[in-house]
Specification:
Blueprint: H1 14-47, H2 53-92
Length: 94
């Protein structure tokens, strides 16, 4: 037995209808995927071990202290480099 492919001759406007019907399927699939994703997120969030308030406050203070330390450290280094460059420029008369 031989299979013969027949070209489907449609009017030029019918391809728009075909594309439009595909959009409905895509939207339905997207909504289903979004619902599944949100359900999975909800399940995962229930499994998370959340830190206590004391842990969060302590960690926040560590971050603030570290940022302050490095801010001061970099300001001192910047000032020393600035003074060094000014000294070199003055030494060579630039």
């Amino acid at each position: 037995m031989q299979t013969v492919k027949v070209k489907n001759e449609e009017s030029p406007g019918s391809s728009i209808t075909g594309a439009a019907s595909g959009i409905g399927e895509k939207v339905t699939g997207t909504i289903a995927n979004t619902r599944e994703f949100l359900h999975d997120v909800r399940v995962e969030m229930k499994q998370v071990t959340w830190p206590s308030r004391e842990d969060v406050v302590a960690t926040t203070w560590v971050v603030i202290a570290t940022v302050a330390f490095f801010g001061v450290f970099l300001a001192v280094v910047d000032k020393l480099v600035q003074l060094g460059v000014a000294y070199v420029f003055k030494k060579f008369g630039i």
